[in-house]
Amino acid sequence: MDIALRATQWDYKKLISVAASLSFEDYVSAFITFALVLTIPTSAILFLNWLDSSVPVGLYPPAGCRKLGLYWKSNLDDQFKAARKQASLTVKALLIYPVKSCAPVELAKAEVVRTGLRYDRQFTFAQLVSSQPQKNADGKDEVEHKWKFITQREFPLLAKVRTEIWIPEPDIDGYHPNLPYVRSKGAVVVSFPFSPDWSLLSFQGLKNLASILSAKLLAFDLKAEPESSFTLPYDPTPDRIQEKNYTAEKMQIWKEYHSFLNVGPEIPETSLAQLKYFLGVRNPFTLFRIDTRNYREVFRNAPVKADVDHQPIVAMQDAYPLHIIGLSSVREVEAKLPEKEARQLDSRRFRANIIVSGTTPFAEDKWARIRIGSGKTISDIGKELDPIPRFNEYHLSCRTARCKLPNIDPATGDRSPNEPYVSMTKYRRIDEGAQPYPCLGMQSVPMWDAGLGVGEEGEEEEEEQGLSGWVSAGDLVEVLEETEGHFYIKQ
């Protein structure tokens, strides 16, 4: 050990001596040499990766569209800081989940329609499941096959599947009303991590290696992976449905069987196989979209048609159009974690649409009716309509019964076996109707002044009749009515 120590000390002193003897020109030469050594292979890696771009030319970005959402700073960047005293309640953040159980898209402002926030949970992935063999009347074994939606509960890596919403934008170069994605009211881009097999013995293997290395270089993260992506129309036209041979099929969401559009034919077979592998799905696998002519009606705790002039509807949501939660409630759940499980809880674990700041912990438990708005006119945020104050009312239908999905870290897809679910069962089993589940957050329905049936045109009718509204981050939240009588009705 002494010999090794003396050798290390000698090498250290020798290194200092050599460094001191070098001239300025020597240092410049060494720097240039290092830069070349680093730059040449890096450039080669990026060039090879460019050659093997996973998104075909012309599909991204979707022609005639602009990307929806925040580009830089998130309104949740400071969610872990100590809450400042607020004179009023405000909207902290707005989130939509275009594909159910996948990563959210954060918005600065959102249009409120009867199904919740526009673009929210319009799609869901599903797998084909088979029953155990059952004897029929002839004594023969029969097996039932049915499509069933999937979530992070079974496939936690859905948390790392990113979605983008692109909407038609007449002011951008190249816009034309007959462009495919303009006609379909926009596009959805789905991306997910996927590292292809690589080899030094083939050109394709080298390109795959280049894509892996370039992902790490560009992200300055050794854990970063390249992504695979595919693009599909947001609301496909009848011509597109016929061209791609969509089928209307029954799919199960919880206890409900409903007819949806199977848009799987839009996804390239390679992309679908890669996504199955990434998620760990073994059964037949596809993507469904809500049929806008056939939304799912909501009953249970929702307001009745006689009160709101229409029966509330949803697309792929579990039960109700909107989910609202107080940021202070999330922080309180975090504070009550056991010491050995202590961590920062990202509010996105709870997959709310509207996150409210300025409340006391769990204040939303008693909300029955709220108003959200800023006093600005609709024309102030891009709608050329009558200058009316921009306020919308919401019916707080029931509390949100919680499963173990919030145990999944939305950034990594890693699942904790216990928290925060186990802790919440000790103090958040507050609704007799939701037993044995804990509750956090509120399920909500937008309120309108005029009637609208479930028609064939769906969202277009809402716009024509003035039934859509707007909500923005920073809007004021006013509690109009509270109740002690919330009682969760199960499906």
Automatic annotation (TrEMBL):
Q: Which UniProt keywords apply?
A: Membrane, Transmembrane, Transmembrane helix
Name the Gene Ontology molecular function terms of this record: catalytic activity; molybdenum ion binding; pyridoxal phosphate binding
Keyword Iron applies: no
Segments crossing the lipid bilayer: 27-51
* PROSITE patterns for the chain: MOSC (PS51340)
Domain MOSC, chain residue ranges per copy: 293-480
In Swiss-Prot or TrEMBL terms, this protein is called MOSC domain-containing protein
Lineage of the organism:
Eukaryota, Fungi, Dikarya, Ascomycota, Pezizomycotina
